[in-house]
């Protein structure tokens, strides 16, 4: 008797579901959710000049952003940087972590090569907009310290 071959079902990434759950958990506990983002990931739209070492930390608390939308593809919202309003777009694959500013509790994510590969393939068909850097000068505020991230199990 031959065994039937078992094909593992393809599942969506768990990252967007975990990001939404952790965001809600952090806000419910009256803490400030911060999202660590790979600013060099394809299709990421964050203000120029605020990233350090290719990463940017974004305060996504309800009081800091407007029009927050989190789905399985991306997180998008409007935020202010140096007093200038910006529309931000962060593909789920660019999210490196989400944590509470006050205590560092949250989650860090591994790089998902399949997400990067998919986005790079889609970029081959799309020409980037060349609007130049957004207006609004000034130096970005210096972070008060490096956030400490803890793995929540």
UniProtKB/TrEMBL annotation:
Matching SUPFAM superfamilies: SspB-like
GO annotation, biological process: positive regulation of protein catabolic process
Region (Disordered): 112-153
Xref: InterPro entries: SspB (IPR007481), SspB-like_sf (IPR036760)
GO cellular component: cytosol; ribosome
Pfam families, per the entry: SspB (PF04386)
Ranges annotated as biased composition (Acidic residues): 115-133
Protein name: Peptidase
Annotated source species: Pseudomonas taiwanensis SJ9
Lineage: Bacteria, Pseudomonadati, Pseudomonadota, Gammaproteobacteria, Pseudomonadales
């Amino acid at each position: 008797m031959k065994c039937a071959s078992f094909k593992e079902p393809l599942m969506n990434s768990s990252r967007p579901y975990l990001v939404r759950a952790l965001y809600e958990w952090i806000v419910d506990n009256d803490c400030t959710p911060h999202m660590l983002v790979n600013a060099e990931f394809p299709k990421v739209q964050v203000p120029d000049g605020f990233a350090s070492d290719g990463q940017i930390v974004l305060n996504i608390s309800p009081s800091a952003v407007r029009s927050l939308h989190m789905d399985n593809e991306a997180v998008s919202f409007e935020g202010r940087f140096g007093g200038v309003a910006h529309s931000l777009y962060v593909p789920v694959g660019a999210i490196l972590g989400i944590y509470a500013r006050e205590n560092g509790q949250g989650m860090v994510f591994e790089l998902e090569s399949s997400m990067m590969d998919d986005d790079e393939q889609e970029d081959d068909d799309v020409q980037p907009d060349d609007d130049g850097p957004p207006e609004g000068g000034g130096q970005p505020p210096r972070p008060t310290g490096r956030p400490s991230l803890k793995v929540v199990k």
